[in-house]
Amino acid sequence: MQNGFSVEFFIANLVSKIINNIFGTLIGKTKSNSNSINMKNTLKLLGLALMASAISLTSCKNKKETVKQAGEVEIIIPCSGEEYFSNKKYFRANAVGESLDQMTSKKKALSNAKSQLAGDIQTTMKVVGDNYVKSSEFNNTEEVLERFEENARTVVNQQLSGLKTICEKLTRTPEGKYKTYIAIELSGDELLNAYNETLSKDQNLKIDYNYEKFKETFDKEMEKFENQ
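and the corresponding structure tokens:
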């Protein structure tokens, strides 16, 4: 684009000089000094006009090329983005469901979001359980880990019924299908309390179970969401 500007400017300038030289000769032969001066002024204006025209055309051309090269369109997906990510206080998930039926599209979106949320929670709780058991003195480590995982699945299934919808958008495609975008969340504190209640009642774990230590392990794992 810079080279294009220089070439056009050079051509316009050259044309101006040529016209000045040609008509300068004619003006020199003119008897009237007044007419000569007027002619020179006219030629200068003509040269400047040509130069301005060339610059303007080049500028427009450059702008068009810039737009063409950019050519990117931002795609905004409803119920998505950083505000819908999990953090140290909430587990979050978002999903989309599509169907010819409006309610079915919502059910699909909610089901997909729940599946994602459940998977994320179970993954996190498995890490929490592993770290807690490894840092504690349990005689039968494998059995204890298995009990933690079983309790985690039970708690997650129970808590999913009390999750909160934090975003819901409905659109319709050109083909006439409905698309539901949805985002849900589950409080980390509520999950921890439910998990603690379940572990406290487990006959195989309650003797050696330390809530404060487990909570510390849980909070440390939740903090990792802030750095993702």
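(Above: one complete record from the training split.) Confidence is low (pLDDT under 50) at residues 1-5.
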